[in-house]
Design a protein that fits this description.
Oligomer: single chain
Structural class: mainly alpha
Number of strands: 0
CATH architecture: Up-down Bundle
Number of domains: 1
Strand content: under 5%
Order of helices and strands: HHHH
Radius of gyration: 24 Å
Number of helices: 4
Largest sheet: none
CATH topology: Methane Monooxygenase Hydroxylase, Chain G, domain 1
Helix content: 55-70%
Distance between the termini: 56 Å
Amino acid sequence: MLQSYLPILILVLLSLGLAGLVIVLGNLFGPHRPTPRKLTPYESGMVPFGPAQRRVDVRFYRIAVLFILFDIEIIFMYPWAVLFMNLSARAFLFAEMVVFVLILLIGYIYVWRKGGLEWD
């Protein structure tokens, strides 16, 4: 049974090895001539103004985390929806998805009631 995973393991190891080799060779043989102009942040051809790294408001992170959470929910729902009509245990699969959505809905309501979605 584990022999069926051997090609995948070989592919992963070769991919990681090749990626590491490219990084090492790039650092060994690449040009290293930093100048002050090369070290300035690139602003799509515009003259940079202000610092390159600035603080981002934490409200954006909250929205981003919620977006990722519900985006992953959709990622899990898509294969379920594709296979739902082809499988025989439809009632169980439907109940399973209802429980999954209810858990996410409870989390969403909790965040909403705590004011996590407010933009104050």
